[in-house]
Amino acid sequence: MSRRAVIEQAKGVFMERYGVDDEGAFARLVSLSQSTNVKLVQIAADVVARSGIGGAENGRAHWIDRALDAFGDPALVLSPVPTDRGAVADFQVDHANRSALRWLGRPRDRVVRGTASELFPAAAGTLLVNACRRTLATGTAVAGPWLTAEDDPEKRGVRLHAARIATVVLVTWQRTTSEG
């Protein structure tokens, strides 16, 4: 597939997903490319691959998704949700492994395609989005304590890990204490 065709398909995905016009979709792609220092055609190819259109391998069939399902710790693959000005406003869940679904207590269809700020309470969502933004912008992995639902003893003492993989962020977390 030509570079132009891939970019056009990615624009179509953004137009449908974010309700923007052709120009707005292209501006978001360009901005993501600039903010992540990843070529536009690679951003576009990743968007198309995760969307499952045009014969592209869908996200569930991607090798990293299959690997994460075998991973014991909760893990999410998050893709940036750009604003109309191209800044990263939030992160959309492209994949949640079985451990993450158990930890969240929600079925896959209520997690995948949701955003980080929808899935986690205010402070936890803000910390997660900021860690992902930093990881995406710098390419440097981020690890640190994560404030989660303090009223739930099962979700206290959690350490967050975020790592950039191409144009997405892999987020995992582990309990660091055995409260409860």
Description:
- By secondary structure, this protein is an alpha+beta fold.
- It is globular, with a radius of gyration of 16 Å.
- It has seven helices and five strands.
- The longest helix has 17 residues.
- It is 44% helix and 21% strand.
- 31% of the residues are buried.
- A hairpin with a 2-residue loop joins strand 4 and strand 5.
Notable traits:
180 residues; alpha+beta; five-stranded antiparallel β-sheet; 7 helices; 5 strands; globular
Largest sheet, strands/sense/barrel: 5 strands, antiparallel
Fraction of residues in β-strands: 15-25%
- Give me the side-by-side strand order of the main sheet: 2-1-5-4-3
Helix/strand order: HHHHEEHHHEEE
What's the β-strand tally?
5
Give a concise summary.
The chain contains 7 helices and 5 strands; from the N terminus they run ααααββαααβββ. It is an alpha+beta fold and 180 residues long. A 5-stranded antiparallel beta sheet has the order 2-1-5-4-3, sandwiched between helices.
How are the secondary structure elements laid out?
Blueprint: H1 3-18, H2 22-36, H3 40-51, H4 63-70, E1 75-82, E2 88-96, H5 98-104, H6 116-119, H7 122-138, E3 142-146, E4 158-165, E5 168-175
Antiparallel strand pairs: 1-2, 1-5, 3-4, 4-5
Helix pairs in contact: 1-2, 1-3, 2-3
